[in-house]
């Protein structure tokens, strides 16, 4: 996976900040994620769901609405209508620079924004909302005690999510006049509604109202035990997995997404620059694609994947684990929580620089002393270990 920070110009003359999360290889489809009220593209829900979706093959553009995060503009002047305009401009930008989104995802008020524009987006295959209110005006409940002050003074500072934000009168007037029912009724794209039955910010009855209003095909999935912001362990990953599995019914994969390098015979690895960063490199076999990169501490590194020495250690570690596992199954051992850690360092020996790989195996507590000794012996016999200790011949030629 790689993440690229981007800037999106708007018709108002301001710029929006976005992050494009991309999988290794050809994306299954592009998606846009709209974040919650007063949140940002870096909110737990936005970042975790987007990144988990890249593991499922999607490229996801998440962005900051005007006046929030790294986007220009004054949030006090923002309205639901201006958020709709931002969302449509982001969708248009993605289509012009990469590919039109086939999936729209919105969280909380971002979900309401997605519902309000979806019928206007060409080529859309699926829409998913997470903890979205049926009526965007529901958000005024977060600052109901300050509405009179907002109307009298034009704006007021309120506390939302533990931090102060300035709410303007224009937002209150605009959001309470939205014809959301008509917009949901106009939607003919498959809709997935995700909502926690115990959501204390936006009650689950909102999901029921959206479901009743929307046309088929539509689906509802309860996010049992989740909070409104999806901050609990695994909640973002689970939500992304549900969205990906559901959307796959409606989004046809591009021909090269299933096997982007099907021409490669077994035993051959293809490597080429990703074309986007200094060190980003795409690695592929006939059925797998992944990324390599340098860490951010290296000038030009983006840490989008393991570095070459990480991959070398991973190859030895994987082979070690597989070999011990095969031996343990044959002997009837239970490896349990056995794990292998590897590091490398360069040391001087007889005036020469030698690369030393240190492999540390932590065995499960239930394994006996004799079993551990046997597994240590077999670890040294894994094929990659033998290859690394043997004589290497590397030839380089133009193909």
Summary keywords:
399 residues; Rossmann fold; GMP Synthetase, Chain A, domain 3; 2 domains; eight-stranded mixed beta sheet; three-stranded antiparallel beta sheet; 15 strands; elongated
Description:
With 399 residues, this protein is an alpha/beta fold. The chain folds into two domains: 2-247, Alpha/Beta hydrolase fold, catalytic domain (Rossmann fold, 3-Layer(aba) Sandwich); 307-389, K homology (KH) domain (GMP Synthetase, Chain A, domain 3), CATH 3.30.300.20. Helices cover 32% and strands 24% of the residues. Strands 1-2-4-3-5-6-9-10 form an eight-stranded mixed beta sheet, with helices on both faces. A three-stranded antiparallel beta sheet has the order 11-12-13, with no helix packed on it. Strands 7-8 form a two-stranded antiparallel sheet. Helix 3 (109-117) links the parallel strand 5 and strand 6 (126-130). The protein is elongated. The relative contact order is 0.10.
């Amino acid at each position: 996976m790689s993440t690229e920070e981007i800037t999106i110009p708007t018709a108002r003359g301001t710029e929006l900040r976005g992050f494009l999360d991309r999988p290794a290889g050809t994306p299954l489809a592009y998606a846009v994620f709209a974040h919650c009220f007063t949140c940002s593209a870096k909110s737990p829900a936005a970042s975790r769901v987007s990144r988990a979706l890249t593991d499922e093959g999607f490229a996801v553009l998440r962005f900051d609405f005007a006046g929030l995060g790294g986007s220009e503009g004054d949030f006090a002047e923002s309205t639901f209508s201006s958020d709709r305009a931002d969302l449509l401009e982001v969708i248009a930008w993605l289509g012009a620079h990469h590919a039109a989104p086939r999936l729209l995802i919105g969280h909380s008020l971002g979900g309401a924004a997605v519902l309000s524009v979806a019928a206007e987006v060409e080529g859309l295959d699926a829409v998913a909302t997470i903890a979205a209110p049926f009526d965007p005006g529901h958000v005024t409940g977060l600052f109901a005690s300050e509405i009179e002050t907002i109307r009298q003074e034009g704006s007021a500072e309120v506390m939302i999510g533990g931090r102060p934000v300035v709410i303007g009168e224009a937002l209150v007037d605009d959001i309470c006049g939205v014809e959301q029912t008509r917009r949901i009724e106009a939607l003919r794209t498959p809709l997935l509604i995700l909502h926690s039955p115990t959501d204390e910010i936006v009650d689950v009855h909102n999901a029921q109202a959206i479901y009743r209003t929307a046309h088929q095909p539509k689906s509802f999935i309860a996010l049992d035990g989740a909070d409104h912001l999806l901050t609990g362990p695994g909640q973002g990953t689970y939500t992304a997995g549900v969205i990906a599995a559901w959307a796959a019914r409606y989004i046809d994969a591009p021909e090269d997404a299933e096997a982007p390098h099907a021409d490669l015979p077994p035993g051959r690895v293809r490597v080429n620059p990703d074309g986007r960063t200094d060190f980003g490199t795409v690695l592929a076999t006939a059925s797998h694609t992944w990324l390599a990169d340098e860490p951010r501490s290296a000038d030009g590194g983006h840490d989008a994947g393991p570095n070459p020495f990480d991959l070398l250690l991973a190859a030895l570690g994987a082979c070690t684990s597989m070999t011990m596992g095969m031996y343990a199954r044959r002997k009837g051992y239970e490896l349990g929580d056995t794990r292998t850690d590897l590091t490398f360092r360069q040391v001087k020996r007889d005036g020469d620089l030698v690369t030393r790989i240190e492999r540390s195996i932590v065995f499960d507590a239930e394994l006996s002393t004799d079993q551990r000794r046997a597994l240590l012996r077999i670890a040294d016999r894994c094929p990659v270990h033998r290859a690394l200790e043997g004589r290497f011949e590397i030839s380089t030629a133009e193909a």
